[in-house]
Amino acid sequence: METKAIVTPEEACKRLGGVLVGDKCKIIDFDKATDVILDCMRDIKEKAEVWEEVLWEPSFFTCVDKLKNGVELVPEQVDKLREKVADWVFDAELEPDATVIFFRGKEEIDRALITPFEKPEGFDVKWMRIDPWRGYYDTVAEGWKKVYEDAIMAFTRHAEALRRFEKILKEKFDELGINWAVVISRTSNVLSRGLDIFVSEQDYKSMKKKIEKALTEALKEAGVEEAGWW
Questions:
Q1: C-alpha span between 80 and 21 (Å, rounded)
Q2: Cα(150)–Cα(119) distance, rounded to whole angstroms?
Q3: What is the pLDDT of residues 186-200, one digit of tens each?
Q4: Which residue, among 130, 143, 127, has the nearest Cα to 200 in the 3D structure?
Q5: DSSP conformation letters of 35-50
């Protein structure tokens, strides 16, 4: 049986680039603390289910609690650390404009990010402004047919229904053996993400009725419409 190493308060504080002052950890090297927390946040995101919403702020606090290992941090320093992580997140892969997950049947075959600096072939996003403060990314894809669009609002019955929908749809699309993609895109609401489902144009043209039937059945079986938004 593997024994988990015991981390002392001094070690936990040092891991966050700090020194122990009394019973509190004072962060000295904020760059080191930021890097350690970002690594933890990436790990959470990589281990998440495909459609599981991993919002950066909750995962930030999860990682802080995990890494400080019971040691109390100076509150003002937590705020500063949060700001540094937030600045990085919105310019990097933890918060891309969109994430594209490619499937063949129910097997995930690839993931790609859409950012100002990179995008998978054929895919792009356009910022759609609702008002001066709000908006969302609309996804377009050359060579793909958009067959479903929705929004994932975290912590709602609707989000739970969409998770059921995803599992059911995977099985139905696996029976058809089609190539398809899920796009999760960013919005101005930190609790909401856009959801688009695309099918390769070639598969859509040859199996249009079967694909539409699979979508209709999956939505009904998952109870997406009945779930409402809350």
A1: 18
A2: 21
A3: 998 878 899 999 999
A4: 143
A5: HHHHHHHHHHHHHS-T
